From TrEMBL:
Keywords: Membrane, Transmembrane, Transmembrane helix. This is Mitochondrial inner membrane protein Mpv17. It comes from the Eukaryota. One of its GO terms (molecular function) is channel activity. It is a multi-pass membrane protein.
């Protein structure tokens, strides 16, 4: 809970910066999941550059001032719940948490040989 409270304080103090870092971190996490759980590369074969590329792409797809991620592929039910039930400043985190699975799939699909 202390980590969540620290996230909330940072989000209140620096909303745009925290949202960019959240989006990038979770996009990078999607790539790590893809490489380690789906592709089963192992740590020695992990492509760190690929993870950094995916994280950088995640950082670049934040739509400020609406504070929403611009990944329009997300499920309409998630977006509907997000718009009606989640306060504006938490929407990015909700969308990105749901998108981790999708990002893992996209990473796997994009880097499949």
């Amino acid at each position: 809970m202390a980590l969540w409270r620290a996230y909330q304080r940072a989000l209140t103090a620096h909303p745009w910066k925290v949202q960019v870092l959240t989006a990038g971190s979770l996009m990078g996490l999607g790539d790590v999941i893809s490489q380690q759980l789906v592709e089963r590369r192992g740590l020695r074969a992990h492509q760190a550059g690929r993870t950094l590329t995916m994280a950088s792409l995640g950082c670049g797809f934040v739509d400020f001032p609406d504070a929403l991620i611009t990944n329009y592929y997300l499920w309409p039910a998630v977006q509907l719940a997000n718009f009606y039930l989640v306060p504006l400043h938490y929407r990015l985190a909700v969308v990105q948490c749901v998108a981790v699975i999708w990002n893992s799939y996209l990473s796997w699909k994009a880097h499949r040989l």
